[in-house]
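Friendly challenge for the regulars: who can give me the structure tokens for this chain first? No prize, just bragging rights.
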Amino acid sequence: MSTAFWRYLAHRKLGQHEEARAVVDEVPEDLELIENFTYYDSVLFFKGTRTADELLPEADSLTKFAIAMEHHFRGEQEQAEELWLGCVNGSAQGFWPAEAELLFAEESAGS
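First reply, four minutes later:
Bragging rights claimed.
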């Protein structure tokens, strides 16, 4: 499941939206998992079968990151940055993918 998650994001960042959609479309909606629930929920979110409202109340950093990335892809930068900051500040270890996105956003704003 983690591979589908990161492949989807890579394709979206490269502007390969059809390829991204194909990655998540391959994931069945009725899997019985014993682990990687967060990745699965996030992939289903990318697929459109789960909503941010459903996921946010109990979201961990990975799920918040997934929702933030969708905001980012839609041009909703303020919402994305708010969620990325929540990912980073929500743990003593931070969350490096969100940290990287915040740095990219800062660099983009400065250019």
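Helices lie at 2-13, 17-25, 37-47, 52-55, 61-73, 77-89, 96-110. Residues 2-110 form one domain. Your move, everyone else.
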